[in-house]
Structure formats: structure tokens, C-alpha cells
Design brief:
The protein is an alpha/beta fold and about 375 residues long. It has two domains: about 160 residues, FAD/NAD(P)-binding domain; about 150 residues, D-Amino Acid Oxidase, subunit A, domain 2 (D-Amino Acid Oxidase, Chain A, domain 2, 2-Layer Sandwich). The chain contains seven helices and 22 strands. The strands form four sheets. Strands 8-9-7-17-18-19-16-20 form an eight-stranded mixed β-sheet, sandwiched between helices. The chain has a six-stranded mixed β-sheet with strand order 11-4-3-15-22-21, with helices on one face. It has a five-stranded mixed β-sheet with strand order 1-2-14-13-12, with no helix packed on it.
Length: about 375
């Protein structure tokens, strides 16, 4: 029962678990906890799906931004296959949830597009490795779009969805209590339990879940060298006269992506890239000046990409928005608990493939919280 605390002029509530963040991951965690009979509330600094979830292009793509041949080289064959299988499992869970909740899912498949011959060879090698490891993929040595690309890798099982609608529907069906506009400032353990200091209220609980992706370093220094906040930028054109894309696409090692919406608007997105040579995950850290410079690099690169491959899109007149992704040093999400505050759990660092990871991370995190199940390859202590 809420009570008024005159000294701080804030509401003090209590529950078993507080989930910080009402994106798709936070919603999936809360829904699963409530099914397990755990009294759960969500605190969200903005609005439901107001962060990376709502600012995504709605593309649930298997795998990572880097191509599969890179993953095999970086992780080894067995671990790369495990990572890809996790995201395929995540797609299945997303589709099941969307269909159960009446949220439309478009089974479009996707294209990974090569911008040069080097990337074309990477896609060809990736397609062969993917088929050998049991994943549906097909290499096309020419440009299926006729837009200046060199080759493509087709993944027929990828899907698109309105991520905001799915998040809202999931929360509504779960009956979760959500406090929007309630930014969390601090967490502190005291004899009465875990105290969550937030805007206009204080919440006492037993456990906190941080589902804040790229904002994790703001909550605890533990994440300073583990999660790099990285801005992405999306242009949305006016409705085009014709259908330009029948399925979502990513290009240039995943650093650009595009999708045409049912109303024929074209979304073109891009995110931070390394400056010297291509590698899937850029170095972390940097000053504000460096961050501003990188933001300019993203915008300039996206304008060049649009000009070369989608000249009908006038980027100068397009609406645009930015979002914040969380990148880890090895490109994999983190599931775990804070060493100095073991009552605080987290699922963060989803990179640019959060829709395919969300339900898998929620399952692994809740199993860790309630049953002590090891998250395996996703365990955060791999980076210590």
C-alpha cells in the first residue's frame, strides 16, 4: 500500500521485484515473473517502448550484426552456432507472443547486402557455413535489388513486427504495473530491503532488474568497460511511389539497414562505425567531442548510403530520430547480477539485434533469478 513520506515528498511503494525499463526486454521479464507468481512493477524514465524498442526499425533478424563467418572466426564454430541458435529461438518466442496477443508479424525474410567484393566473399562463406550448421540461408552472387550492391545473403525466416505494439500488448496481458515518467536515480541496500530512488517515488523491494540496455553505465560503474552506449540514426522518407523493398535489409557489415513500411515510407538506419577498418564492434569510450564526431560520421555515412542505393529518398527532407544501443566488447548481451549489489540483476548490451534477443534474455534472466540457472554463454562474468 503506498504511503506518503513528507520528508522526501515522494511516494514510497513496495513489491517483490522492480524492473527498470519498459522496453521489450523489461516487458518480457516482467511478464514472465508475474506468470511465476512474483509481485512485479516496472519503472520507466520515459514511456512504454519509448527508448530503443520504439526507435527500432521493427526488424527481428537472426544472428549478430557481423556476418556468420566473422562469428565463427571470433567465437569458434560451436559457440557461433549457439549464438545464432539463441537468436532463432528468440524469433520463435517473439512470433509466439505476437500471435497470442494479436500483434501482426510479417514473415518477410531478410537480405544482407554486400557493398563491395570483400563483403560479397564474406556473405558467400557465411551462407555455406550457415547451411552446414543447420540454418536457412542462400547466397545470391548478384544484386537482387538492382541498386548497386555486389551480392546478397537471403535469410528466409526473419520477420518484422511493430515492437512498440508488441511491448504494450505484452504488458497489458500480463497485468504489470508500469510507472511511466519515473526515472530511477539510485539503488541502495538497507536493513529493510533494496531501496530504489526514483522520480516522485521511492520503492522498497527485494530485487531489481536493470533492463536498460545502452544506459547501463549510468546505473553502476560495473558496466563502464562492458557496455558502450552507441547512438543510431534513422531517416524516414515520405511515402514512395512504388515498392522499393519487399523485405528488410542490412548492408555494409550490418552498419546500415533499411525497411519499407506498409505505407511505403522507407526507413534507412545506421549506427557508429570504426574509422580505420571494418570490424563488427568499434572501440568503447571516448570524449563528448569524439562522440559528436562519430554522430556526424553516422549521419554522413547514412546520407552517402541513401544517395548511392536509394536516390529517390531525399534525406534532407526526411524525418529522423536517434536511439541508443548498448554494445559489449564481444558483441553478445550480458545476463547477470551486480557483484557489489547481488540483489540487482540485469539483461543489457543487446547491440542492434534486440528484438531477436529479448525473449531469450528474459527467460535466461528469470531462470537465473528464481532457480540459479547459469546463463551460459550470455553470463556477464565472461568479461571479468
Amino acid at each position: 500500500m503506498p504511503m506518503w513520506t513528507a520528508r522526501r515528498q515522494t511516494w514510497a511503494d513496495d513489491c517483490d521485484v522492480v524492473v527498470v525499463g519498459a522496453g521489450l526486454v523489461g516487458a518480457a521479464v516482467a511478464a514472465r515473473l508475474i506468470r511465476e507468481g512474483v509481485d512485479t512493477a516496472i519503472l520507466e524514465a520515459q514511456t512504454v517502448a519509448g527508448g530503443a524498442t520504439g526507435r527500432s526499425a521493427g526488424m527481428a533478424l537472426a544472428g549478430l550484426a557481423g556476418h556468420y563467418n566473422w562469428a565463427v572466426s571470433a567465437y569458434g564454430r560451436e559457440q557461433a552456432r549457439e549464438v545464432w541458435a539463441f537468436t532463432v529461438e528468440g524469433q520463435d518466442r517473439l512470433i509466439e507472443a505476437a500471435e497470442r496477443l494479436g500483434v501482426p508479424v510479417q514473415r518477410t525474410g531478410s537480405l544482407a547486402l554486400a557493398v563491395d567484393e570483400t563483403e560479397a566473399h564474406a556473405l558467400e562463406e557465411s551462407a555455406e557455413l550457415l547451411r552446414e550448421d543447420g540454418f536457412a540461408a542462400r547466397f545470391e552472387p548478384n544484386d537482387p535489388l538492382g541498386r548497386g550492391f555486389c551480392a546478397a545473403l537471403r535469410q528466409p525466416d526473419d520477420v518484422t513486427v511493430d515492437a512498440s505494439a508488441l511491448t504494450r500488448a505484452l504488458l497489458a496481458a500480463s497485468g504489470a504495473i508500469v510507472h511511466e515518467g519515473t526515472e530511477v536515480y539510485d539503488l541502495a541496500w538497507d536493513p529493510n530491503g533494496l531501496r530504489v530512488w526514483a522520480q516522485r517515488r521511492t520503492v522498497m523491494c527485494n530485487t531489481v532488474v536493470l533492463a536498460v540496455n545502452g544506459y547501463a553505465p549510468l546505473f553502476d560503474p560495473y558496466f563502464a568497460d562492458k557496455v558502450a552506449p552507441t547512438r543510431s540514426l534513422v531517416f524516414a522518407s515520405e511515402p514512395l511511389d512504388a515498392v522499393a523493398l519487399e523485405q528488410p535489409c542490412c548492408a555494409d557489415y550490418g552498419y546500415e539497414y533499411c525497411r519499407q513500411l506498409p505505407d511505403r515510407r522507407l526507413l534507412l538506419g545506421g549506427w557508429r562505425r570504426p574509422s580505420l577498418h571494418l570490424r563488427p564492434f568499434p572501440p568503447q569510450g571516448g570524449s563528448e567531442a569524439q562522440e559528436a564526431e562519430l554522430a556526424d560520421v553516422v549521419q554522413d555515412g547514412l546520407v552517402r548510403f541513401a544517395s548511392r542505393h536509394f536516390p529517390e529518398v531525399q534525406t534532407r527532407d526526411a524525418s529522423r530520430w536517434s536511439g541508443v544501443m548498448g554494445l559489449t566488447p564481444d558483441g553478445l548481451p550480458l545476463v547477470g547480477r551486480l557483484p557489489d549489489l547481488p540483489q540487482a540483476y540485469f539483461a543489457v548490451g543487446l547491440g542492434g539485434r534486440g528484438l531477436a534477443w529479448a525473449f531469450v534474455l528474459a527467460e535466461r534472466l528469470v531462470d537465473l533469478m528464481l532457480r540459479g540457472t547459469d546463463p551460459g554463454i550470455l553470463a556477464a562474468d565472461r568479461l571479468t
